[in-house]
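Explain the record.
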Amino acid sequence: MPTTQATYDDANLILRLYELRRDEKLRQAREWFAANVKVKTMEELMQLAPPGSQENAYARMVATYWEMAASLVTSGVLNQDLFFQSNGECLFVWERLRGVVPGLRAFTKNPHAYHNLEIVGTAFVKWMESQGPEAYPGFQAMVHGVAAAKG
């Protein structure tokens, strides 16, 4: 994903993504996801959010929202740096799902499920590391609910 100067169209698309996040149902799903999705295996995810449950709908809503947003970056429609500067929640979601994505791909028989989220999440980590040596470890500690290591 090449780095280019952000445009007014990029800024407008970022604002549109924020508008979508204001949807009441998506806000509820995001709140539930942040508080509850701390799974390490597909089995844990299925226990937390069994198919057909409201929890499953919430998990899918959050994951597919960020997969869609990431696809705008991977396709070159949205400036990557601008996206990273204002959408840390995308990396938060990737950190919470990273360990179960292989299981989700096997479960859905889709080897490309959450591919955009994976690409953007990986690039986001590199971008965050470029911001300072403690930026990513501190973020990981916050996401996984552990105290950041003191240096």
Notes: Residues 147-151 have pLDDT under 50 and may be disordered. DSSP finds nine helices and no strands in the chain.
